[in-house]
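Its record is retained below.
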Amino acid sequence: MFQKYLTKTRKKGFTLIEMIVVIAIIAVLIALVAPLMTKYIATARQAKADGAAKSLYTAAEAVIAEETLNGTTSFVESDVASDALGYIDNNSAITSKSVTISDGAVAKAEVTMDDGASGAYPLS
């Protein structure tokens, strides 16, 4: 008879204690994952900046090769960097750029992205 009474009056659902335990477990998991996510986001930003620097480097090489075919022998680094941006598809995220030219060839390209990450190619 006692069993019959318990089954009829017991409601389905979670108790307050069970809900608090679940919330605590979720909070602990978030606390463990959050530092890893910030690290991965920073690594992704750096990789994006390095990729943009490599694109600028390759585009600057193309500009120098094109100008060399047209007979130009001396190059202004800022002009080459500006012209090279025309070869890069998604250059809106690049806030500052610089190209170093040595002996008529591109020696280094450096960029700063709009999120503050900076990259260089070749990597040093």
